[in-house]
Structures are given as structure tokens and as C-alpha cells.
Amino acid sequence: MAxxxxxxxxxxxxxxxxxxxxxxxxxxxLRRAASRAGHVRIEGARCRGPVDLRKARLEAHLELVDCHxxxxxxLADAVVDSLDLTGSRLAALHADxxxxxxxxxxRGTRIGPxxxxxxxxxxxxTDGDRVTVPRRVPEDAAGAPLGLVAARIDGGLVLxxxxxxxxxxxxxxxxxxxxxxxxxxxxLRSRGALYLRDARISHxxxxxxxxxxxxxxxxxxxxGGFYADWGFSCAGPVRLRGAEVGRVVTFHDxxxxxPAGAAVLTRLRTPRLRVDFRARPxxxxxLRDARIGSYVDSPAGWPAPGALDVEGLTYDRLGSTAPVxxxxxxxxxxxxxxxxxxxxxxxxxxxxxxxxxxSARLVRHAxxxxxxxxxxxxxxxxxxxxxVLFGYGYAPGRxxxxxxxxxxxxxxxxxxxxxxxxxxxxxxxxxxxxxxLDLIVPxxxxxxxxxxxxxxxxxxxAVLLILAGWLLATAVVAGASRALSRT
Length: 487
Fold this sequence. Notes:
Blueprint: H1 8-16, E1 20-22, H2 23-36, E2 39-43, E3 46-48, E4 51-52, E5 57-65, E6 68-74, E7 79-84, E8 89-94, E9 99-100, E10 104-105, E11 110-111, E12 146-147, E13 152-153, E14 157-158, E15 163-164, E16 170-173, E17 178-179, E18 183-184, E19 189-190, E20 193-195, E21 200-201, E22 205-206, E23 211-212, E24 214-216, E25 221-222, E26 225-227, E27 233-234, E28 237-239, E29 244-245, E30 248-250, E31 255-256, E32 262-264, E33 269-275, E34 285-286, E35 291-297, E36 308-309, E37 314-320, H3 326-333, H4 341-353, H5 357-372, H6 377-390, H7 396-416, E38 420-421, H8 432-440, E39 452-453, H9 457-486
Parallel strand pairs: 1-3, 2-5, 3-6, 4-6, 5-7, 6-8, 7-9, 7-10, 8-11, 8-12, 9-13, 10-14, 11-15, 12-16, 13-17, 14-18, 15-19, 16-20, 17-21, 18-22, 20-24, 21-25, 22-26, 23-27, 24-28, 25-29, 26-30, 27-31, 28-32, 30-33, 32-34, 33-35, 34-36, 35-37
Antiparallel strand pairs: 38-39
Helix pairs in contact: 4-5, 5-6, 6-9, 7-8, 7-9
């Protein structure tokens, strides 16, 4: 039974002897001690009953280290200089609207009951454009064991090696939280999800080696970096929709595990993004309308076909942790079944900025082939002809090869079957090569076509060469004009 009697010395004596103390008694002690001393430390306390410090002004540095709170610690709208709960166990910590002048330290702290399995987090649907509908959670219905709604922490928020439990979807519920330093959660363990929507973090958010159910940091503003790397594991989606991160967003060596591990980075803004996952994500990689300076990935971490969304993604530089050729990069882009012309052009521009004009042409050629697939039959046929003859304007050597082949074939035929001279004109010396060129090239005007009059099979060959020449010229002009207008 929790001890309710005794003054200050009695409480400290009960704590030292390992006796349970009442939550109301502890709350009263902390209010009184904080008003008299700038530093209050209690170690190893066992407390039963809620510790209600709501709206309290605790102008002291509180340390409640290695304590066991069987019930809630209530700090909503309280003011405290700093709070250290290192190594403590709590049923719940509800601190919505709390003001912490220094650090809030929850290093190695266990909060809430640990569920038997990860709590699933899924999106309710899409808006018809493959973009997941944003989910805003009612703040009065979250039920998270660690609540920091609209809290303001002037120092850092430390969750290193903490364990967050709970039986609901959310383990940490902290929309609109403001952190003056970094949110350090290396090694955090949480079966539930972290809700950091519209959070403001002055430095970095560090989740290295953390294992969580999901992360929703939609609308995050972070002046430093977002580090979900070096063994970070997540069984649900990591959402950074509309987030702005000042330095880097990195998932290096991260594992987006089953059943629903995914990265939803729609409209993300950051100078550098690393998505070189440890292995292929269980779910999708959504980069729609993101604005990235430098994009780095790894072939081993590319999402499955159909699980990539890069429509509207822009980036200045494209890199990989392993050598990736242009054809492999096109195979990566093909994993987005809905990739449009803009996605191909963005890839071509990245090669062009790097001075690789050949790769840029190959990408634009692939773009034309991809776009023609959606046209009607006549357009697809004409596109196939342009592709074979001239590569849509991006393979000029192919047109030259066709021209040489036609000239060689025609010259060989007419060398073996010379036509008779046409009557009524000056007689010209016979040259099968010039005659074939005059037939094939529509605007050659070499005078050979009118000087000779083929008959029978020779006439049919001449007509075929004329038609082939016009077809080749039309395809070349169409392809060249398209290439010039696009570049």
C-alpha cells in the first residue's frame, strides 16, 4: 500500500527504504521543493496513483531517475526548467502544452504497456491521383502513452533507448511540438507509431537504430537533418508529406519492413535525399512533387515494380552508392507505371547537367517510346516507323545507315539491270549510284531520274526507292523537329 503520511524527510526516507509512495504526496512534494530549490532529484521512487502536476510552475531542474510510476504523470500546461526521467517506468506521460526551459530527457525510459505485436497503421484511401489522402488525427482521441501536443521544449527532446508501448495506434502523439535543439531518439523501441505532424525542430531529428511502428511527420519543419538511418527499422509508412528539412533526409541502411514499411515523401523539400535502404521496401516509395537538390539511392533498395511514384519529382543531381548505367536507371524509372514525359525529361536533364549527352539522348528516346504506347493505332504505327528509321530524332546514325543500305541495294540492282535512256533529252553517262541517290533523296535534283526510263521490274524498284526516300525524309524531319523543340 502506498504511503500517504510524513513530510519531506518522511517521503525521502520512504523512497530510500523502497516503500511505495502516493502520487498526490509526490506531486505536493515536487511543487513545494521546486519553489525552494533550483534542483530537485529523486532516485528509485516507487509511486502509485497519478502524479498530477498540471498547470504547475516548477522553476527547478527536476530529476526523477530510475523511478517506477504505476499510474500517469500529468504535466499538461505545466512550466518546468528541465525534466529528466532517465531509466524510469511510467504508465503514461501526458504533457500537452508543457513548457520546458531546458531538456526533456527520457533516455532509457519505459512508457506504457508493451503490446504483443506492432500496431498496424494504414492510409484510408487515395484521392484518385495515386496520392494518399492526408490523415489528421483528432487530438482528443489519440490515446497515446506519451502525449506532447503543442509542447514547447527550449532544449532537446531525448528519447534515446526509450521504450514506448500502448495498445492504440500512436505511441508518441506530439503534433505541433516545438524543440529548440534536436529530437534525439537513437535506439528508440516503439510498437506504435510516432505522430509529429507540423512539428518544429531547430536542429535535427535523429532516429538511428530506432525500431518503430510508423512515423507521421507531415508538415515537419526541421532546420538540420532527418536521420532515419544506420539500422532504423519501421513496420509501417514513414510520412514526410510537405516536410521541409534544411540539410538532409537520409534512410541509409534503413529497413522498411513488412507488413507496410514505406516512405511517403510527397512534396518534400530538402537539399539532399538518401534512400539507399538496406533492402527493398515492403511498400512504396512515393516522391511525387518532391524538390530535391541531390538524390542518392541504391539498386538493392529500389522498390518493387509498380511501387515507385516519381511524378513531379525534381532533382539537380542523381547518384547511387553502386554504379548504375543509363539502361539500369531507365529500368528504375519503369518501376513507376504512371511515369510521364516530365519524369523522363527530369532524368535526361540530370545527365545533361553532368555532361553525358549520350545518356540524355537515350532517355529522351525511351520517353518517346513510352509515350507512343498510349496513342491510338495509327499513332503507334507511325511512331514505330520513326523509331525504326530515326529513333524519334535521337538516333541520327540509324537514318544514315538506312540511307546507305538503300543506296547500296538500289545501286546493285541498277548496275545489273541498267534502264534505257529516256528519249528527247541530252544523253548522260550512266552511273547507278547517282541514279539511285536521285531516286531516294527527294530534293537531290541530280538530273539522273529524268535521263533514264526503267521498265518492268526496274520501274517497280524505282518507285519503291522513291517512296522509301520520302518516308525516310518525313521521319527524319518529324523526329528532328521534335528533338529540337523538346531540348
